[in-house]
Every structure is written in C-alpha cells, then in structure tokens.
Specification:
about 90 residues
Length: about 90
C-alpha cells in the first residue's frame, strides 16, 4: 500500500468525520469529542490497511474512504469500549 500526501490528508479529514459519526453511533464511549476524533483517525488508518487485506471493496473513490473510515472507527470504538469497560455494562 502506497500512501501519497493527498491520500493521507483524505484519510485524516474523513477519519475526523467518521470519528464524530462513530461517537454518535456508539453512544456512551466517554471519550468526548476530541477522543472520538482521535479514534476516528486511527480507525481510518486501520480500516484503510485492513479492508484491502481481506479483499473487501465497498464503493469507489471518496465513498470507499468514508465507508472504510466509518466502519473502522466504529469497530475501534467498540473494541476500546469492550476493553475499557470490562466488568461494566455494555
């Protein structure tokens, strides 16, 4: 996977939006807006790396980046919530 400067900027911007959306979908994360944004950016990088490894292609162009980032951010928020909330109610 080759990341150009433009693709990194797209991943960051879409990751910020995806983190905000994931924070709305996965309510009660307790990270606040800034924390959800950081998780969204991390989720964007994870999904951009992970989905092609499994051969998944959902959409094309910017639509694919938005879908990857949103799904990656939601998965990351759920995983962090499960790890952080061991013993607490999901």
């Amino acid at each position: 996977m080759v990341l150009s400067n433009e693709s990194i900027i797209v991943i960051l911007v879409v990751g910020i939006v995806a983190g905000w959306l994931a924070g709305k979908v996965v309510q009660g994360t307790g990270f606040g807006l800034l924390g959800d944004l950081v998780v969204g950016i991390a989720g964007a990088f994870v999904a951009t790396w992970l989905f092609p490894r499994f051969g998944l292609q959902l959409g094309t162009g910017i639509v694919r980046e938005i879908v990857y980032s949103a799904v990656g951010a939601i998965l990351l928020l759920v995983a962090v919530r499960l790890i952080r909330g061991v013993g607490r109610r999901f």
